[in-house]
Structure formats: structure tokens, C-alpha cells
Amino acid sequence: MTDRAMQEPTLLLLTALADVPRHGYAIAREVESISGGRVKLRTGTLYGALERLLQQGLIEVHKEEIVDSRLRRTYTLTAPGRAALAVEAERIAATAREATRRLGITGKAATA
Amino acid sequence: MTDRAMQEPTLLLLTALADVPRHGYAIAREVESISGGRVKLRTGTLYGALERLLQQGLIEVHKEEIVDSRLRRTYTLTAPGRAALAVEAERIAATAREATRRLGITGKAATA
DNA sequence: CACCATATGTCACTCACCGGCATATGCTGA
DNA sequence: TCAGCATATGCCGGTGAGTGACATATGGTG
């Protein structure tokens, strides 16, 4: 298991589930909304990631219902999922802070 | 597309160059330091990324000198590189903020 | 003298993400 | 009327950043 850092689509997917349970398509719309239209989850990415995250135990099926004679599955974060998202959020926030700080202290002209 | 979001190793690499120019190995050490020992840049990732970033114009060769009869190349951020890093830092900071915010408001009365 | 830090580089492989396709329903408008 | 779009789930081949192992070379330390 390569402990590789979470990528943006996955991070946004988990974020979309952080407040309320949602089904696949709703997650995709929410991700687009969160990212200001920047990131549009492809269905390949979406359902692939859901499958992967289920296996990793970061999300779980919240409810299964039949809507218009089709199955709709809603997903929700598990406790480990919430924890993982919190860790990941703090990690990237720290990286962002460090990058911003260094860009500021450029060594060159610096602060205005 | 090439529009794909930057991954952590690349982001840290650029961050390591944000204050002063460094050569490859120094970048690797700096990245390890910045990330608190969490991320160790493999040489495959390092030199592969340097090559890619050079081609993308985000970094450039700052100086080439012979040290111990071996070539040492130091790299520095270009203006587009600084801009890209700033954009990326703000992007992930925003994502982190949103994730943290949502984790806080845990599924109470939000949009269904 | 073995071993490690320093230092740069190649290459086969993996896997998350991409892009396109398939499928099915309900609504809206030319 | 039916073309087209939003809704909704899912598969599959391909791409490319990152991985891990290997290659090579020097200078210092036990």
C-alpha cells in the first residue's frame, strides 16, 4: 500500500461528504460547487474513488433506496474517514502556509 | 489535460525553491525538512519533476558549477513558477478551509 | 576499508485520474 | 414528437506523476 498523499479530486470528494451524506451524482455537483467550478469529477474518477474509499473504510454506504426504479446509494464518512480528512486538511494547510511564507520572504524585494 | 492539480511532492519541491535557489539533493533534504520528515523525495520523482518543471517553465537553472569534478546545477523559481505556486497554495488552502469547516458543522442542518 | 552522506541520473512499474462510452428515466422546448 | 438535457450509475483503455530499485562517483568517518 503506497501511502501516497491524497489528490485533489479525492480530497474534495471526502469534503463533499463531510457535512451530509450524498449519492454519487450529488457528490460530483457538490465538488464542482466547492471548487468554484474548477474541478468536475468525471464519472470514472467518481465511482472508482467511491469503490476505493469504501474498501479503505473511509466512507460507507449510508442508505440504499429505489428512485425511479433505479438504485440510489448514498454515502457517508466513517469515523476513520473524518479523521483522515482532518489530518489531510491540516497537512495541506501547513504546506500552503509554508509556501506562502517562503514566497513572501523571497530574499529579494520582499514586503512592499 | 496538463491542467491536473499539482501533487504534494511537486508542491513541496517548488516550496523548497521559494526562498533560495537549491540543487537537487538540497531540494530533497529541504522537502523532508519542510514536511517534518513525512515526505522523502525519491530520486526518480526528484529528477523527473525537475525535468518536467523546467520544460513547463516553472523553474530554471540558476547556476552550474563543478564541485568535486562533478556538475552541480542549482535551480530557481521563474516568475510563472512563483505565480503558479501562489495560485496552488491558495487553492489548497481554500480546500483545507472548506474541509475543516464542514467537519465542524457535522451533518446538522445543512443543504440536503 | 567498509560504510554512509553527498550527489545525479535511468527505468520498469503502479495506480489515481481522465475521457469516452453505455444505459436508463424524466422533463422541457422547438 | 422527439431531440436534447439533467439526473444517475457504471465500465474500460490510456496517461502521467510518483515509486522503488539500480547505477555511478566522491569525500569523510569509524
TrEMBL record, chains A, B:
<dbReference type="InterPro" id="IPR005149">
    <property type="entry name" value="Tscrpt_reg_PadR_N"/>
</dbReference>
<dbReference type="InterPro" id="IPR036390">
    <property type="entry name" value="WH_DNA-bd_sf"/>
</dbReference>
<protein>
    <submittedName>
        <fullName>Transcriptional regulator</fullName>
    </submittedName>
</protein>
<feature type="domain" description="Transcription regulator PadR N-terminal">
    <location>
        <begin position="13"/>
        <end position="86"/>
    </location>
</feature>
<dbReference type="Pfam" id="PF03551">
    <property type="entry name" value="PadR"/>
</dbReference>
<dbReference type="InterPro" id="IPR052509">
    <property type="entry name" value="Metal_resp_DNA-bind_regulator"/>
</dbReference>
<dbReference type="InterPro" id="IPR036388">
    <property type="entry name" value="WH-like_DNA-bd_sf"/>
</dbReference>
